[in-house]
Amino acid sequence: MSIRLIVGLGNPGPEYEQTRHNAGFWLVDQYPVNLAPDKNFKALVGKTRIAGQDVWLMEPQTFMNRSGQSVGAICRFYKITPDQVLVVHDELDMLPGVAKLKKGGSSGGHNGLKDITAALGTQDYWRLRIGIGHPRSLNLNQNVADFVLHRPRREEQSLIEESIADSLQAIPLMVEGKTAEAMMQLHSPKKT
């Protein structure tokens, strides 16, 4: 099954633009597509071609914990099945510079994923997890909610940008339905 929808998770508004929680938006923003507001989906939406296929790009504008409203609406309208959805989100349990693909599984406490799972009625959609680190793993004295709503330090930002660039190389394989190859490419240690 190939990917027909890439959803970047984040929070709308300039005050959140540079925060760790917006890592999903950061990836979608790398595509040279003008995302337009769509009130039916409560999201910024655009279409692009990846690996010769039409793929929808979406940034829900509902705030993170209501992302399922947007994802559910576009999936119903365009008859996109959960296994054709790739949700890109920040991941506390991975260090900056790490990105991993997985299908299904729990939300890991991520409110955006919880809401998408509820809207789709299943956990069986693809996730592209962009590591942002955890305040404890980065030796920061911050609670998680405060941490994700702040800007990464400069060295963390450059590592996150590297993992986004690596992810963008793997996404065409996902679109072609070559999920095992995409995972191998993204999860393999980098050659220096």
Automatic annotation (TrEMBL):
Its EC number is 3.1.1.29. GO terms for biological process: protein quality control for misfolded or incompletely synthesized proteins; rescue of stalled ribosome. Its main location: cytoplasm. The keyword Hydrolase applies. The active site is at 21 (proton acceptor). PANTHER family: PEPTIDYL-TRNA HYDROLASE (PTHR17224). PROSITE patterns: PEPT_TRNA_HYDROL_1, PEPT_TRNA_HYDROL_2. TRNA binds at residues 16, 63, 65, 111. The record marks 11 as: Discriminates between blocked and unblocked aminoacyl-tRNA. The record marks 90 as: Stabilizes the basic form of H active site to accept a proton. It is found in: Cytoplasm. GO terms for cellular component: cytoplasm. Keywords: Cytoplasm, Hydrolase, RNA-binding, tRNA-binding. Hydrolyzes ribosome-free peptidyl-tRNAs (with 1 or more amino acids incorporated), which drop off the ribosome during protein synthesis, or as a result of ribosome stalling. It catalyses: an N-acyl-L-alpha-aminoacyl-tRNA + H2O = an N-acyl-L-amino acid + a tRNA + H(+). Belongs to the PTH family. Monomer. GO terms for molecular function: peptidyl-tRNA hydrolase activity; tRNA binding. It comes from the Bacteria. This is Peptidyl-tRNA hydrolase.
